[in-house]
Amino acid sequence: MPKITVISHEIVKELLPFEQAFAIVEAAFTEFHQRKSQLYPAVREMVPDHHGIFGIKSSYLLEDRCIGLKAGGFWSKNTERQKMNHQSTMLLFDAETGEPVCLLDANYVTIARTAAAGAVAAKHLARKDSSVISVIGSGTQARAQVDGLLRLFPIKEVVVYSRNAESANDFVRQLLDKGMSARYTCSPEEAVRTGDIVVTTTPSFSPIVQTSWIKEGTHINAVGSDTKGKRELLINRPLDKVVCDVWEQCSIMGEVQHGFPRTELYAELGQITSGDKAGREHPKETTLFDATGLSIQDVKTAFHVYKQAKINGLGQTITL
Ligand SMILES: NC(=O)c1ccc[n+]([C@@H]2O[C@H](COP(=O)([O-])OP(=O)(O)OC[C@H]3O[C@@H](n4cnc5c(N)ncnc54)[C@H](O)[C@@H]3O)[C@@H](O)[C@H]2O)c1
What we know:
single chain; about 325 residues; alpha/beta; ornithine cyclodeaminase, domain 1; Rossmann fold; eight-stranded mixed beta sheet; eight-stranded parallel beta sheet; binds nicotinamide-adenine-dinucleotide
Protein backbone atom coordinates (compact mmCIF):
# COMPACT_ATOMS: atom_id res chain seq x y z
CA MET A 1 0.00 0.00 0.00
CA PRO A 2 1.48 3.41 -0.93
CA LYS A 3 2.50 5.70 1.91
CA ILE A 4 1.84 9.39 1.34
CA THR A 5 3.37 12.33 3.19
CA VAL A 6 0.72 14.98 3.83
CA ILE A 7 2.15 18.49 4.16
CA SER A 8 0.22 21.49 5.51
CA HIS A 9 0.27 25.12 4.40
CA GLU A 10 2.36 26.11 7.44
CA ILE A 11 5.04 23.49 6.77
CA VAL A 12 5.22 24.41 3.07
CA LYS A 13 5.76 28.03 4.09
CA GLU A 14 8.45 27.11 6.60
CA LEU A 15 10.34 25.03 4.01
CA LEU A 16 10.16 27.58 1.21
CA PRO A 17 12.05 30.80 1.89
CA PHE A 18 12.15 33.18 -1.10
CA GLU A 19 15.83 32.58 -1.90
CA GLN A 20 15.17 28.84 -2.12
CA ALA A 21 12.09 29.29 -4.32
CA PHE A 22 14.04 31.66 -6.59
CA ALA A 23 16.87 29.14 -7.13
CA ILE A 24 14.44 26.24 -7.70
CA VAL A 25 12.33 28.15 -10.22
CA GLU A 26 15.35 29.46 -12.13
CA ALA A 27 16.64 25.87 -12.37
CA ALA A 28 13.17 24.65 -13.44
CA PHE A 29 13.15 27.03 -16.42
CA THR A 30 16.68 26.01 -17.45
CA GLU A 31 15.94 22.28 -17.10
CA PHE A 32 12.79 22.65 -19.18
CA HIS A 33 14.75 24.32 -21.96
CA GLN A 34 17.32 21.50 -21.72
CA ARG A 35 14.52 18.91 -22.09
CA LYS A 36 15.06 17.56 -18.58
CA SER A 37 11.35 18.00 -17.84
CA GLN A 38 8.10 17.65 -19.74
CA LEU A 39 4.90 19.64 -19.49
CA TYR A 40 1.60 17.85 -19.99
CA PRO A 41 -1.37 19.70 -21.49
CA ALA A 42 -3.00 22.04 -18.98
CA VAL A 43 -6.74 22.10 -18.25
CA ARG A 44 -8.26 25.50 -17.43
CA GLU A 45 -12.06 25.82 -17.41
CA MET A 46 -14.60 28.35 -16.18
CA VAL A 47 -17.00 27.39 -13.36
CA PRO A 48 -19.53 30.20 -13.95
CA ASP A 49 -22.06 29.00 -11.31
CA HIS A 50 -19.53 29.68 -8.56
CA HIS A 51 -17.43 32.50 -10.12
CA GLY A 52 -14.56 30.05 -10.38
CA ILE A 53 -11.88 28.90 -12.75
CA PHE A 54 -10.74 25.30 -12.29
CA GLY A 55 -7.51 23.94 -13.69
CA ILE A 56 -5.13 21.00 -13.61
CA LYS A 57 -1.49 21.48 -14.48
CA SER A 58 0.94 18.54 -14.50
CA SER A 59 4.48 17.71 -15.51
CA TYR A 60 7.33 15.22 -15.25
CA LEU A 61 10.78 16.05 -13.86
CA LEU A 62 13.02 13.43 -15.43
CA GLU A 63 16.09 13.81 -13.20
CA ASP A 64 14.07 14.06 -9.98
CA ARG A 65 11.99 11.06 -11.14
CA CYS A 66 8.88 12.89 -10.05
CA ILE A 67 5.53 13.43 -11.75
CA GLY A 68 3.19 15.94 -10.18
CA LEU A 69 -0.08 17.74 -10.62
CA LYS A 70 -1.68 20.81 -9.17
CA ALA A 71 -5.46 21.06 -9.18
CA GLY A 72 -7.43 24.13 -8.24
CA GLY A 73 -7.85 27.63 -9.54
CA PHE A 74 -9.28 31.03 -8.84
CA TRP A 75 -12.62 31.75 -7.12
CA SER A 76 -13.23 35.48 -7.37
CA LYS A 77 -15.86 35.66 -4.56
CA ASN A 78 -13.65 34.02 -1.95
CA THR A 79 -12.35 37.33 -0.56
CA GLU A 80 -15.92 38.07 0.62
CA ARG A 81 -15.75 34.77 2.55
CA GLN A 82 -12.36 35.73 4.07
CA LYS A 83 -10.74 33.00 1.99
CA MET A 84 -7.98 33.24 -0.62
CA ASN A 85 -9.21 33.57 -4.20
CA HIS A 86 -6.54 31.12 -5.27
CA GLN A 87 -7.13 27.57 -4.09
CA SER A 88 -4.90 24.68 -5.03
CA THR A 89 -3.67 21.30 -3.89
CA MET A 90 -0.83 19.16 -5.24
CA LEU A 91 -0.14 15.48 -5.56
CA LEU A 92 3.32 14.06 -6.35
CA PHE A 93 3.99 10.61 -7.77
CA ASP A 94 7.08 8.41 -7.96
CA ALA A 95 7.79 8.40 -11.71
CA GLU A 96 9.20 4.86 -11.53
CA THR A 97 6.15 3.20 -9.98
CA GLY A 98 3.34 5.71 -10.42
CA GLU A 99 2.63 5.53 -6.68
CA PRO A 100 1.52 8.73 -4.96
CA VAL A 101 4.14 9.95 -2.48
CA CYS A 102 3.03 13.37 -1.30
CA LEU A 103 -0.15 15.44 -0.90
CA LEU A 104 0.43 19.08 -0.10
CA ASP A 105 -1.32 22.39 0.22
CA ALA A 106 -0.26 24.36 -2.85
CA ASN A 107 -1.59 27.83 -2.10
CA TYR A 108 1.81 28.91 -0.82
CA VAL A 109 3.61 26.96 -3.56
CA THR A 110 1.68 29.07 -6.10
CA ILE A 111 2.53 32.32 -4.35
CA ALA A 112 6.21 31.45 -3.95
CA ARG A 113 6.80 30.00 -7.41
CA THR A 114 5.00 32.88 -9.15
CA ALA A 115 6.88 35.55 -7.20
CA ALA A 116 10.08 33.65 -7.95
CA ALA A 117 9.32 33.51 -11.70
CA GLY A 118 8.70 37.27 -11.75
CA ALA A 119 11.96 37.87 -9.91
CA VAL A 120 13.92 35.50 -12.18
CA ALA A 121 12.55 37.25 -15.29
CA ALA A 122 13.35 40.66 -13.82
CA LYS A 123 16.87 39.56 -12.87
CA HIS A 124 17.56 38.79 -16.55
CA LEU A 125 15.43 41.47 -18.23
CA ALA A 126 15.08 44.53 -15.99
CA ARG A 127 17.71 47.25 -15.61
CA LYS A 128 20.00 46.46 -12.67
CA ASP A 129 19.47 50.02 -11.41
CA SER A 130 15.65 49.79 -11.49
CA SER A 131 14.47 51.93 -8.59
CA VAL A 132 10.68 52.26 -9.00
CA ILE A 133 8.21 49.36 -9.05
CA SER A 134 4.72 50.18 -10.32
CA VAL A 135 2.25 47.49 -9.44
CA ILE A 136 -1.23 47.09 -10.87
CA GLY A 137 -3.44 45.22 -8.39
CA SER A 138 -2.95 44.92 -4.66
CA GLY A 139 -3.88 41.32 -3.86
CA THR A 140 -1.87 38.20 -3.07
CA GLN A 141 0.28 38.25 -6.20
CA ALA A 142 0.92 41.99 -6.10
CA ARG A 143 2.32 41.70 -2.58
CA ALA A 144 4.39 38.58 -3.31
CA GLN A 145 5.78 39.98 -6.57
CA VAL A 146 6.84 43.23 -4.92
CA ASP A 147 8.35 41.36 -1.98
CA GLY A 148 10.51 39.32 -4.40
CA LEU A 149 11.64 42.32 -6.45
CA LEU A 150 12.57 44.29 -3.32
CA ARG A 151 15.17 41.62 -2.59
CA LEU A 152 16.86 42.01 -5.99
CA PHE A 153 16.78 45.70 -6.93
CA PRO A 154 17.75 49.02 -5.27
CA ILE A 155 14.09 50.06 -5.05
CA LYS A 156 13.39 53.60 -3.83
CA GLU A 157 9.63 53.69 -4.36
CA VAL A 158 6.65 51.40 -4.94
CA VAL A 159 3.63 52.91 -6.72
CA VAL A 160 0.36 50.98 -6.35
CA TYR A 161 -2.73 51.21 -8.57
CA SER A 162 -5.68 48.93 -7.92
CA ARG A 163 -9.42 48.96 -8.55
CA ASN A 164 -9.86 48.45 -4.82
CA ALA A 165 -8.42 51.63 -3.27
CA GLU A 166 -8.87 50.30 0.27
CA SER A 167 -6.75 47.23 -0.42
CA ALA A 168 -4.20 49.35 -2.34
CA ASN A 169 -3.87 51.71 0.61
CA ASP A 170 -3.54 48.78 2.99
CA PHE A 171 -0.67 47.45 0.83
CA VAL A 172 0.94 50.91 0.80
CA ARG A 173 0.70 51.06 4.61
CA GLN A 174 2.33 47.64 4.85
CA LEU A 175 5.24 48.84 2.70
CA LEU A 176 5.57 52.11 4.66
CA ASP A 177 5.66 50.07 7.89
CA LYS A 178 8.64 48.18 6.45
CA GLY A 179 10.40 51.50 5.88
CA MET A 180 9.79 51.59 2.12
CA SER A 181 8.67 54.67 0.24
CA ALA A 182 5.29 53.78 -1.26
CA ARG A 183 2.17 55.54 -2.53
CA TYR A 184 -1.24 54.84 -4.02
CA THR A 185 -2.29 56.38 -7.31
CA CYS A 186 -5.77 56.35 -8.81
CA SER A 187 -4.32 56.47 -12.33
CA PRO A 188 -2.88 53.33 -13.95
CA GLU A 189 -1.31 55.56 -16.57
CA GLU A 190 0.55 57.62 -13.99
CA ALA A 191 1.72 54.41 -12.26
CA VAL A 192 2.99 52.90 -15.50
CA ARG A 193 4.73 56.10 -16.66
CA THR A 194 6.68 56.16 -13.37
CA GLY A 195 7.85 52.54 -13.16
CA ASP A 196 11.20 51.03 -14.07
CA ILE A 197 9.56 47.67 -13.42
CA VAL A 198 5.80 47.42 -14.03
CA VAL A 199 4.02 44.40 -12.58
CA THR A 200 0.44 43.58 -13.55
CA THR A 201 -1.38 41.25 -11.16
CA THR A 202 -5.12 41.51 -11.76
CA PRO A 203 -7.66 38.97 -13.05
CA SER A 204 -8.83 41.53 -15.63
CA PHE A 205 -10.44 40.57 -18.94
CA SER A 206 -9.76 43.95 -20.55
CA PRO A 207 -6.56 46.00 -20.83
CA ILE A 208 -5.58 48.28 -17.94
CA VAL A 209 -2.05 49.10 -19.11
CA GLN A 210 -0.95 50.41 -22.51
CA THR A 211 2.62 49.76 -23.59
CA SER A 212 2.69 53.24 -25.17
CA TRP A 213 2.76 54.59 -21.59
CA ILE A 214 6.06 52.98 -20.57
CA LYS A 215 9.34 54.85 -20.62
CA GLU A 216 12.60 53.70 -22.21
CA GLY A 217 14.28 50.89 -20.31
CA THR A 218 11.14 49.64 -18.56
CA HIS A 219 10.54 45.96 -17.90
CA ILE A 220 6.99 44.60 -17.52
CA ASN A 221 6.11 41.41 -15.66
CA ALA A 222 2.59 40.48 -16.81
CA VAL A 223 1.40 38.00 -14.22
CA GLY A 224 -2.40 38.28 -14.07
CA SER A 225 -3.39 36.75 -17.39
CA ASP A 226 -3.34 32.98 -16.95
CA THR A 227 -6.67 31.98 -18.52
CA LYS A 228 -8.29 32.18 -21.93
CA GLY A 229 -9.77 35.66 -22.35
CA LYS A 230 -7.86 37.40 -19.54
CA ARG A 231 -6.00 40.53 -20.57
CA GLU A 232 -4.18 43.33 -18.73
CA LEU A 233 -2.10 44.85 -21.54
CA LEU A 234 -2.75 46.67 -24.76
CA ILE A 235 0.47 46.30 -26.74
CA ASN A 236 0.04 49.49 -28.77
CA ARG A 237 3.76 50.26 -28.90
CA PRO A 238 6.11 47.42 -29.88
CA LEU A 239 8.46 46.19 -27.18
CA ASP A 240 12.09 45.31 -27.87
CA LYS A 241 11.96 41.88 -26.22
CA VAL A 242 8.86 39.83 -25.47
CA VAL A 243 9.57 36.70 -23.44
CA CYS A 244 7.09 33.97 -22.48
CA ASP A 245 7.34 31.31 -19.80
CA VAL A 246 6.36 28.93 -22.61
CA TRP A 247 4.76 29.95 -25.89
CA GLU A 248 2.30 27.03 -26.18
CA GLN A 249 0.66 28.00 -22.87
CA CYS A 250 0.98 31.78 -23.21
CA SER A 251 -0.60 31.76 -26.66
CA ILE A 252 -3.73 30.24 -25.09
CA MET A 253 -3.79 31.86 -21.63
CA GLY A 254 -1.28 34.70 -21.50
CA GLU A 255 -1.09 38.24 -22.83
CA VAL A 256 0.17 37.02 -26.20
CA GLN A 257 -3.12 35.13 -26.80
CA HIS A 258 -4.55 38.44 -28.08
CA GLY A 259 -3.03 38.33 -31.57
CA PHE A 260 0.67 38.64 -30.73
CA PRO A 261 2.53 36.74 -33.48
CA ARG A 262 4.91 33.88 -32.60
CA THR A 263 7.44 35.33 -35.05
CA GLU A 264 7.82 38.40 -32.81
CA LEU A 265 8.54 36.41 -29.65
CA TYR A 266 12.14 36.97 -28.56
CA ALA A 267 12.53 33.92 -26.30
CA GLU A 268 11.08 31.61 -23.70
CA LEU A 269 12.54 32.29 -20.26
CA GLY A 270 14.52 29.01 -20.13
CA GLN A 271 16.50 30.04 -23.21
CA ILE A 272 17.67 33.07 -21.23
CA THR A 273 18.23 31.41 -17.81
CA SER A 274 20.28 28.70 -19.55
CA GLY A 275 22.47 31.34 -21.19
CA ASP A 276 21.49 30.29 -24.73
CA LYS A 277 19.99 33.74 -25.42
CA ALA A 278 20.86 37.11 -23.96
CA GLY A 279 18.60 38.85 -21.46
CA ARG A 280 18.72 42.64 -21.38
CA GLU A 281 21.52 44.01 -23.59
CA HIS A 282 20.88 47.75 -23.45
CA PRO A 283 19.60 50.20 -20.78
CA LYS A 284 16.99 51.59 -23.18
CA GLU A 285 15.41 48.26 -24.13
CA THR A 286 11.75 47.75 -23.30
CA THR A 287 11.00 44.20 -22.21
CA LEU A 288 7.99 42.09 -21.29
CA PHE A 289 7.73 38.77 -19.46
CA ASP A 290 4.40 37.04 -20.05
CA ALA A 291 3.90 34.63 -17.11
CA THR A 292 1.12 32.07 -17.15
CA GLY A 293 2.62 29.75 -14.52
CA LEU A 294 4.10 26.42 -15.52
CA SER A 295 3.60 23.08 -13.85
CA ILE A 296 7.38 22.55 -13.78
CA GLN A 297 7.59 25.52 -11.37
CA ASP A 298 4.98 23.89 -9.12
CA VAL A 299 6.35 20.37 -9.24
CA LYS A 300 10.02 21.32 -8.80
CA THR A 301 9.09 23.53 -5.84
CA ALA A 302 6.78 20.92 -4.28
CA PHE A 303 9.37 18.18 -4.77
CA HIS A 304 11.87 20.28 -2.83
CA VAL A 305 9.32 20.73 -0.02
CA TYR A 306 8.61 16.97 0.01
CA LYS A 307 12.33 16.10 0.23
CA GLN A 308 12.91 18.64 3.01
CA ALA A 309 9.86 17.42 4.93
CA LYS A 310 11.19 13.84 4.78
CA ILE A 311 14.67 14.91 5.92
CA ASN A 312 13.24 16.94 8.81
CA GLY A 313 10.52 14.47 9.81
CA LEU A 314 7.76 16.98 9.05
CA GLY A 315 4.22 16.26 7.80
CA GLN A 316 2.03 13.25 8.46
CA THR A 317 2.34 9.87 6.79
CA ILE A 318 -0.81 8.04 5.78
CA THR A 319 -1.23 4.69 4.10
CA LEU A 320 -3.76 4.50 1.30
N1 LIG B 1 0.96 33.87 -13.96
C1 LIG B 1 0.90 33.08 -12.91
O1 LIG B 1 1.71 32.19 -12.72
C2 LIG B 1 -0.16 33.36 -11.88
C3 LIG B 1 -0.06 32.77 -10.61
C4 LIG B 1 -1.02 33.09 -9.65
C5 LIG B 1 -2.05 33.96 -9.97
N2 LIG B 1 -2.15 34.45 -11.23
C6 LIG B 1 -3.22 35.35 -11.62
O2 LIG B 1 -2.92 36.62 -11.06
C7 LIG B 1 -4.14 37.34 -10.86
C8 LIG B 1 -4.18 37.91 -9.45
O3 LIG B 1 -4.15 36.86 -8.52
P1 LIG B 1 -4.22 37.20 -6.95
O4 LIG B 1 -4.13 35.89 -6.26
O5 LIG B 1 -3.26 38.28 -6.62
O6 LIG B 1 -5.71 37.76 -6.85
P2 LIG B 1 -6.32 38.75 -5.73
O7 LIG B 1 -7.78 38.60 -5.83
O8 LIG B 1 -5.65 38.50 -4.44
O9 LIG B 1 -5.88 40.20 -6.24
C9 LIG B 1 -6.38 40.77 -7.43
C10 LIG B 1 -6.18 42.29 -7.34
O10 LIG B 1 -6.51 42.88 -8.58
C11 LIG B 1 -7.38 44.02 -8.35
N3 LIG B 1 -8.19 44.17 -9.56
C12 LIG B 1 -9.10 43.32 -10.06
N4 LIG B 1 -9.57 43.78 -11.23
C13 LIG B 1 -8.93 44.96 -11.47
C14 LIG B 1 -8.97 45.92 -12.51
N5 LIG B 1 -9.76 45.74 -13.57
N6 LIG B 1 -8.17 47.01 -12.41
C15 LIG B 1 -7.33 47.18 -11.37
N7 LIG B 1 -7.26 46.30 -10.34
C16 LIG B 1 -8.04 45.20 -10.40
C17 LIG B 1 -8.16 43.63 -7.12
O11 LIG B 1 -8.69 44.78 -6.50
C18 LIG B 1 -7.07 42.96 -6.30
O12 LIG B 1 -6.28 43.93 -5.64
C19 LIG B 1 -5.26 36.36 -11.20
O13 LIG B 1 -5.68 36.56 -12.52
C20 LIG B 1 -4.59 35.02 -11.06
O14 LIG B 1 -5.24 34.00 -11.80
C21 LIG B 1 -1.21 34.20 -12.17
